[in-house]
Specification:
- 2 copies of one chain form a homodimer.
- By secondary structure, chain A is α/β, with parallel strands linked by helices.
- Chain A folds into 2 domains: 70 residues, Arc Repressor Mutant, subunit A (Orthogonal Bundle), CATH 1.10.10; 110 residues, NAD(P)-binding Rossmann-like Domain (Rossmann fold), CATH 3.40.50.
- Helix content of chain A is 39%, strand content 19%.
- Chain A has 8 helices and 10 strands.
- In chain A, helix 1 packs antiparallel against helix 4 and helix 2 crosses helix 3.
- The N and C termini of chain A lie far apart (54 Å).
- At the A-B interface, helix 1, strand 4, helix 5, strand 10 and helix 8 of A face helix 1, strand 4, helix 5, strand 10 and helix 8 of B.
Chain lengths: 213, 213
């Protein structure tokens, strides 16, 4: 495989599909499978096999005519491409219901991420223990992010506070933000932002439904 | 516009982008804009303008040469296509941290969804009030889903319980499930399932980062 790095101009929409492929490969590994094909992946994911082959071709030659993709190899290569062949320390801002759920979430560690600190501005929450972490005041945010070399953070605060928190995170050196608040946030160029948008998933599904009421 | 309904074989990946377009149009409306172009939408979303034009062409002719898309019109058409020109009642299963956060989430109502009931199997939680809703026992699930004509539900239980909950929801008549538990669930053909997968978003962003540690 030829490693392209970040400099090659691969469409962001293609990058966005790599985690989906990785998730499907995780499942195949759990099923103790050794080989798969763009066809099988496509059927499982509702994406055309041509699209999958085209997406992967941006990063090198992974499949062989006849045998298809070696699952373990493709899995490892995509982990490297996405830089998740390591563990990223993360900060959570907001220790309300959602922040607590994120600190407890068991899906992060197996896939390259670990929450290492959690912040809130509510004196009633500061000092509280969540899954072994102590909720820290916002005044500690910059120093903790530096100390843990944190580049990735999740925002779990009320929507009115999300922009201010994002600004503080960026000032502290955070380069990638996953925002759970239902509001668009502005960040400088070069800082990544993604949104957890349950409504987009719900609307995707209601396309296929016939309303009963 | 020619309304195609669900019968036309439009790729699911195209359907999945419509909520993203709708979200961008919401923002443009908030900015009091009247017209936009596939170019502008593409730049905001990191999707090629050709892709956007092709996606929308599955559903009819929305744009005009020269003036582009009328934002309010396109917004209304996509709402109709996705069946969110109405309000869908929803059930939440799981009244822990995440379930509580979902009941409180302010992003649903403005975009076509409303949580109308919440269930848990923990006697300590049953009867609790969350944002005006009373947590009900799982034994009430089927009757409440029927009474409210609920077709859409969200799973916010620990991963070990997610499959059993999904099965109960489908038996009760639910046709679309948004699963927050980090586990794949099996449902019969014809039932929609989507996943909230924060790790996919995180991995998308770490592609662009250079690890510091």
């Amino acid at each position: 495989m030829i490693r392209m790095g970040n400099s090659k101009n691969i469409p962001d929409i293609v990058i966005g599909r790599l985690p989906i492929y990785l998730r499907a490969l995780n499942l195949l590994i759990a099923e103790q499978r050794e080989y798969t094909s763009s066809h099988e992946l496509g059927e499982r994911l509702g994406i055309s096999s041509a699209q999958i082959r085209k997406d992967l071709s941006h990063f090198g030659e992974f499949g062989k005519q006849g045998t298809g993709y070696n699952i373990a190899y493709l899995h490892e290569q995509i982990r490297q491409i996405l830089h998740v062949d390591r563990e990223w320390p993360m900060a959570v801002v907001g220790a309300g219901d959602l922040g607590r759920a994120l600190v407890h979430y068991r899906g992060f560690v197996p896939r390259g991420f670990r929450v290492v600190c959690v912040f809130d501005n509510d004196p009633a929450r500061i000092g509280e223990q969540i899954a072994g972490l102590t909720v820290q005041p916002m005044s500690e945010l910059a120093s903790q992010i530096a100390a843990h070399r944190i580049q990735v953070a999740m925002i779990a605060v009320p929507l009115e506070a999300a922009q201010e928190v994002a600004t503080q995170l960026v000032e502290a050196g955070v380069e990638a933000i996953l925002n759970y608040a239902p509001i668009t946030i502005s960040v400088p160029d070069g800082v990544q932002v993604q949104y957890i948008d349950p409504v987009a998933h719900l609307q995707h599904m209601t396309y296929y439904l016939t309303p009963k009421s």
